[in-house]
């Protein structure tokens, strides 16, 4: 088949563009170490989705390594527990693993202005790990429509300086 | 508020008047001559065609234009290639911006 050299030129350019797309995503995942939300959380008891696995008493827990925290969050219509009534508080320069479960319907768990964003599906545990290098306050919103007061379903995450962090809050 | 609505009214009236004047001017002095006001029989069809002001009516009456034909490979769409190059550059740069600045640069991110 005869292909005009200009057509060959932009065929090659299109292929290069695809290589660029795939290459940057690969770099982000492998080189820069950015992760994706995956299925590592596994399933929860579908009849009692928040009855086990640390969700009986949601809150901030010390993980096995120092500087690493496990945060268990239960999303219900229309609160994050903890988050809405009391802020989630973690110290700066820490690695935080969020374990999110839903007590009723599908919810979203998005820390506003960051890439931390996952769904909370009933019967599934969502697990995301992030590092917080700067102190600050972040909003948490539900971004999956969950009912009449969905728009009010919000919470707060406070990343506080080490000196201001009350370790006794953590169990 | 009142001044605003009066101003809006004046501006709208001015715009409508300007549009009307423009459309009227285009109709009177535009690229098309106004149609004949009445039909008069002028004998056989050929003579009518030669006199018609709007140009030829049938394709057969259009004189054959002189065209130049080139071989497939001799035709170099340089302009198209340049346009495509610009498109590729825009898409590539926007992708890099979106991925590295907007996504990877977006504060704390998921690491596992």
How would you describe this structure to a colleague?
- The complex is a heterodimer of chains A (171) and B (112).
- Chain A has one helix spanning 5-31; strands spanning 59-62, 68-76, 79-81, 88-91, 94-102, 107-111, 117-120, 126-132, 136-141, 154-160.
- Chain A folds into two domains: 1-34; 39-169, Cupredoxins -  blue copper proteins (Immunoglobulin-like, Sandwich), CATH 2.60.40.
- In chain A, strands 1, 2, 3, 5 and 8 form a five-stranded mixed beta sheet that branches. Chain A has a five-stranded mixed beta sheet with strand order 4-10-9-6-7, with no helix packed on it.
- Chain A contains one helix and ten strands.
- Helix content of chain A is 16%, strand content 34%.
- Chain A has 171 residues and is an alpha+beta fold.
- Chain B has 112 residues and is mostly helical.
- Chain B has a domain at 77-106.
- Chain B contains three helices and no strands.
- Chain B has helices at residues 2-29, 45-51, 78-103.
- Classes of the chains: A alpha+beta (171), B mainly alpha (112).
- At the A-B interface, helix 1 and strand 8 of A face helix 3 of B.
What key attributes describe this structure?
heterodimer; A: about 170 residues; Immunoglobulin-like; 1 helix; about 35% strand; B: about 110 residues; mainly alpha; about 55% helix; flat
Question: Can you lay out the helices and strands and say which pair or pack?
Answer:
The complex is a heterodimer of chains A (171) and B (112).
Chain A: H1 5-31, E1 59-62, E2 68-76, E3 79-81, E4 88-91, E5 94-102, E6 107-111, E7 117-120, E8 126-132, E9 136-141, E10 154-160
Parallel strand pairs in A: 2-5, 4-10
Antiparallel strand pairs in A: 1-2, 2-3, 5-8, 6-7, 6-9, 9-10
Chain B: H1 2-29, H2 45-51, H3 78-103
